[in-house]
Specification:
The chain has 3 helices and 2 strands. It has 88 residues and is mostly helical. It has one domain: YggX-like (Orthogonal Bundle), CATH 1.10.3880. Strands 1-2 form a two-stranded antiparallel ribbon.
Length: 88
């Protein structure tokens, strides 16, 4: 099990098994984001796709998700859908 210091959660945690995204951003995620934080992103990504009705066939929608992924994982400034409340 690979341990890393997670920049999102500010604690040591289990690292991802492989690079989850291509290129430099994927490398940065692999080296600095834990499995726990990545799972948080995947849940947030699903919310964004559903609430904003994003289409992965559309280049602009994919680009939006990449920008939001970087913000969510490294700055905590990702958008939150207006009026959205998470069900518990």
């Amino acid at each position: 099990m690979r341990q890393i210091y997670c920049q999102k959660l500010n604690k040591t945690g289990e690292g991802l098994d492989r690079q989850p995204y291509p290129g430099e951003l994927g490398k940065r995620v692999y080296e600095n984001i834990s499995k726990e934080a990545w799972a948080m992103w995947l849940a947030h990504q699903t919310t964004l796709i559903n609430e904003y009705r994003l289409s992965m066939a559309e280049s602009k929608d994919r680009q939006l998700l990449v920008k939001e992924m970087e913000k969510f994982l490294f700055t905590n400034e990702s958008i939150k859908p207006e009026g959205y409340t998470q069900k518990t």
